[in-house]
Automatic annotation (TrEMBL):
One of its GO terms (cellular component) is cytoplasmic side of plasma membrane. It is found in: Cell membrane. This is Cell division protein FtsA. The lineage of its organism: Bacteria, Pseudomonadati, Pseudomonadota, Alphaproteobacteria, Rhodobacterales. Keywords: Cell cycle, Cell division, Cell membrane, Membrane. HAMAP family: FtsA. Belongs to the FtsA/MreB family. The keyword Nuclease does not apply. Cell division protein that is involved in the assembly of the Z ring. May serve as a membrane anchor for the Z ring. Its main location: membrane. Self-interacts. Interacts with FtsZ.
Length: 444
């Protein structure tokens, strides 16, 4: 974990440099859409300009000055599958955003939905050196966490200390300056496959950009879609994307679990294309214009013409009722929601004080999804839109921009991660520990 620790620390330093320069691009690499937001940051106070170390500013005001969206190419299941196509798509999105902003950007921070994320809950305990908790004590307790053996070919993208315990006082978010003798920490590790990360780094560099950070889309979607009460009391954000459905669970305003289902809106479109013998683009338009998940009596009489541009004008036009269309779309969406429910159950979601579920992402706009999700997931469900931020145009306020907006919020007000502290990385353990979220049931 030592090389990863150093690499993440370098990314933190580059991100700080980018913010101090004033302009940063955030890039959401999706299977069907690639979105870029250019952020302009307010310069930090003069007396903070020479701050040493890798610590990020606690909060940075920003406004969106450029937006660029293009159809994604070369991406499957949230991972880059064709480097040249993905590079061209990123260049086009960046160029559109730069044209709107009237400025060039050199630094980009990326979120993606692939990599098969897995969560681990780890814990560590140390004695406080001098009675008062200082940053060195926090570094020591993080270094004493028992890191699980998560296998070869995986990297940690987030290492979040989500709960500190000082003697018998738990639920502390920042124990620095407090008096005590024993300090313990619960830390959430989020790992992904390393190949998708390396491909993203390579692709961004080929676009003449400096990568200044990377995040998982399910995490950033939750930051922008969950309100404060939901993050505090416990809620799940389900980000229905094109190639994957991300899941993130928050409690006490901390990310405590994340996962993904490798199914999304693309698979619904493919079902329509195969079932109705239509071209993919026609099936996508049919889904967008007439799709739904809950049939009514009116849908049996609602006839839809299946346009085929290649068919001769004299040929008889094919038609389908909307209820038949729903009959093709619903089974796939039920499969996705059932997989989501299985992952939430395995994570211990039913032990949280509140169990609200928020649906976001482009797929959440399918009519009838809220009703179907409430039936399958068995909990209160709502459709979530990203938080409004200064300068964000109307076209970027829909659920499909939850990841990009959340990434902007993430870098403007970052949560401390283990590489923000002076940690002897070679002391990290390698013992297998219990599943993530379980310790929240015991300690909170």
């Amino acid at each position: 974990m030592s090389s990863l620790f150093q690499e993440q620390r370098k990314l933190r330093q580059q991100r700080e440099v980018a913010i101090r320069r004033g302009v940063v691009a955030v890039l959401d690499i999706g299977t069907t859409k690639l979105a870029c937001l250019i952020l302009q940051f307010v310069p930090p106070p003069a007396n903070d300009a020479g701050a040493a170390g890798v610590k990020m500013p606690h909060a940075s005001a920003f406004r969106v000055i450029g937006v660029g969206t293009v159809q994604s190419h070369g991406v499957e299941f949230g991972d880059i599958s064709a480097m040249d196509q993905a590079e061209n798509a990123i260049r086009n999105a960046i160029q559109k955003a730069q044209k709107m902003a009237g400025q060039r950007v050199d630094h980009a921070i990326v979120c993606f939905s692939g990599g098969t994320p897995r969560s681990y809950g780890v814990e560590g305990v140390v004695e406080v050196a001098n009675g008062e908790v200082v940053e060195q004590d926090i570094g020591n307790v993080l270094a004493h966490c028992d890191i699980p053996d998560f296998g070869e070919g995986r990297e940690v993208v987030h290492a979040l200390p989500v709960n500190f315990t000082l003697d018998h006082r738990t639920g502390l978010s920042d124990p620095r300056g407090q008096i005590g003798s024993q300090l313990a920490v619960d830390m959430h590790l989020l790992t992904v496959a390393d190949t998708p990360i390396h491909n993203i780094i390579q692709c961004v560099r080929r676009c003449d950009l400096e990568l200044s950070g990377i995040a998982v889309s399910s995490y950033t979607s939750g930051l922008s879609s969950l309100v404060e009460d939901e993050q505090e009391l416990g809620a799940a954000c389900v980000d229905l994307g094109g190639g994957a459905t991300g899941i993130s669970v928050f409690l006490k305003r901390q990310l405590i679990y994340a996962d993904a289902v490798r199914l999304g809106g693309v698979h619904v479109t493919r079902d329509l294309s195969a079932g109705l013998h239509l071209r993919y683009d026609i099936a996508e338009r049919l889904k967008t214009m007439h799709g739904g998940l809950v049939a009514t009596g009116q849908d049996d009489r609602d006839v839809i013409e299946l346009a085929d541009p290649k068919a001769p004008p004299t040929d008889e036009r094919r038609t389908i009722t909307r209820s038949e269309l729903i009959g093709i779309m619903r089974p796939r969406m039920e499969e996705i929601l059932e997989d989501v429910r299985a992952r939430l159950d395995a994570a211990g979601f039913d032990s949280l004080p509140s169990q609200r579920i928020v649906l976001t992402g482009g797929g959440s706009q399918t009519p009838g999804l809220e009703t179907l999700a409430q039936h399958i997931l068995g909990r209160q469900v709502r459709i979530g839109r990203p938080m409004r931020v200064h300068g964000l145009p109307q076209l970027a306020t829909g659920p499909g921009f939850a990841s990009a907006v959340g990434l902007a919020l993430h870098i403007s007000n970052p949560q401390d991660e283990c590489w923000d502290f002076d940690i002897p990385a070679d002391r990290m353990g390698a013992q297998r520990i219990r599943r993530a979220v379980r310790w929240f049931r015991d300690n909170w």
